[in-house]
């Protein structure tokens, strides 16, 4: 049985994720202004996204900068990484990623980005995705433990920080992640407090398949239309699999499903790729129904698509 749902209100998928640890509070910093028409460069860590606007904490400065991504912005990785096509590099512009930007100041004091470069090893995007998977699994377990045993929020936060560090070390990430970066990657963007889901769709797949059906495409067309009528929207895509295959097979299949959705939104629904957040496959985690019966497995072979807006920033920035 195939189900398609679209909701135009904020939903909390998997209530346990409400307890996804305490957000790391980012201290307000003065905003760096760029002179209109003058070339400039900036390097720093993304702390927030608001549509095409990226807020960056400037390296070695106590300031932030607002970078504007346009159709003309070239975004390049310094090294290749797992299952990512070159045209999808723009989707890696997530909170926690360190970027270097070259551009020209605009009339609003922002930096219109001509070129953005990032190194997946500096902030390991692959590791971040794995951390998100493991942290979400851990959060669900912690939520149950909290209900049963009254585990303190502080204890959960410490356990998550330890887990994130272990995962980064195990994956061989060369860079040392600071507490802020760890806090950011422990959650999907939609689970960060600044973001609100305004439209959501769930797409369901046949066993071992990542091909979109006609109904899937219709649902994505509707979602894209709703998204593009929303100011400063972003789209988050998460793919899943049932538990019938191996961990590696499920991870690959969920990645392929998420990528298929991203490619359709870009190529057929005309959504700019820069408005899509890194499409991620999460294997057989986050089961929405028991995997012990066929109907439950049908439900778990899915992709969740969310249209997000940043409710914590002035939409007119």
Descriptive report:
The chain is α+β, with helices and mostly antiparallel strands and 317 residues long. It is built from 6 helices and 11 strands. The strands form 2 sheets. The protein has a 5-stranded mixed β-sheet with strand order 1-8-11-9-10. A 5-stranded mixed beta barrel has the order 2-3-4-7-6. The protein is elongated, with a radius of gyration of 19 Å. Strand 2 (39-50) and strand 3 form a beta hairpin. Mean pLDDT is 76; it is low at 1-27 and 159-186.
Quick rundown:
By secondary structure, the protein is α+β, with helices and mostly antiparallel strands. It has 6 helices and 11 strands.
Shape by Cα distribution: elongated
Number of helices: 6
Into which percentage range does the β-strand content fall? 15-25%
Total count of strands: 11
- Rounded mean pLDDT score: 76
Q: Give start-end ranges of low-pLDDT stretches.
A: 1-27, 159-186
Give the terminus-to-terminus CA distance.
Answer: 45 Å
Question: Helix content range of the residues, please?
Answer: 25-40%
Biggest pleated-sheet summary:
5 strands, mixed
Structural class: alpha+beta
Task: Report the order of strands and helices.
Answer: EEEEEEEHHHEHEHEHE
Our Rg estimate from Cα atoms comes to 19 Å
Strand order, biggest sheet? Answer: 1-8-11-9-10
Task: Provide tags for this entry.
about 25% strand, five-stranded mixed sheet, five-stranded mixed beta barrel, elongated, disordered N terminus, alpha+beta, about 325 residues
Topology:
Blueprint: E1 5-7, E2 39-50, E3 53-58, E4 64-68, E5 74-77, E6 98-105, E7 111-118, H1 125-149, H2 153-170, H3 179-185, E8 195-204, H4 214-228, E9 234-239, H5 247-267, E10 280-281, H6 294-300, E11 302-310
Parallel strand pairs: 4-7, 5-7, 9-10
Antiparallel strand pairs: 1-8, 2-3, 2-6, 3-4, 6-7, 8-11, 9-11
């Amino acid at each position: 049985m195939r189900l398609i749902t679209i909701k135009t209100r904020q939903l909390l998928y998997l209530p346990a994720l409400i307890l996804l640890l305490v957000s790391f509070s980012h201290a307000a910093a003065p905003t760096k202004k760029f002179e209109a028409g003058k070339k400039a460069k900036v390097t720093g860590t993304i702390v927030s996204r608001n549509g095409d606007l990226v807020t960056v904490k400037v390296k070695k400065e106590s300031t932030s900068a607002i970078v504007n991504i346009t159709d003309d912005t070239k975004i390049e990785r310094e090294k290749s990484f797992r299952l990512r096509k070159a045209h999808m590099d723009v989707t890696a512009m997530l909170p926690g990623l360190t970027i270097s930007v070259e551009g020209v100041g605009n009339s609003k004091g922002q930096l219109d980005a001509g070129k953005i470069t990032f190194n997946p090893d500096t902030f390991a995007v692959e590791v971040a995705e794995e951390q998100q998977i493991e942290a979400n699994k851990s959060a669900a377990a912690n939520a149950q433990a909290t209900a049963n045993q009254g585990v303190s929020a502080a204890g959960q936060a410490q356990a998550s920080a330890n887990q994130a560090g272990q995962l980064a070390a195990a994956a061989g990430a060369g860079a040392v992640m600071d507490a802020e970066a760890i806090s950011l990657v422990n959650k999907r963007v939609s689970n960060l407090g600044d973001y609100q889901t305004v439209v959501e769709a769930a797409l369901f797949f046949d066993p071992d398949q990542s091909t979109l059906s006609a109904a899937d495409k219709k649902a994505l067309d509707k979602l894209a239309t709703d998204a593009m009528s929303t100011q400063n929207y972003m789209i988050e895509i998460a793919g899943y699999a049932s538990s019938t295959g191996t961990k590696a097979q499920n991870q690959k299949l969920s990645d392929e499903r998420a990528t298929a959705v991203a490619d359709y939104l870009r190529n057929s629904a005309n959504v700019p790729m820069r408005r899509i957040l890194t499409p991620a496959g999460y294997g057989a985690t986050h089961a929405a129904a028991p995997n012990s019966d066929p109907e439950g497995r049908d439900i778990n072979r899915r992709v969740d698509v969310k249209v997000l807006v940043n409710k914590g920033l002035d939409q007119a920035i």
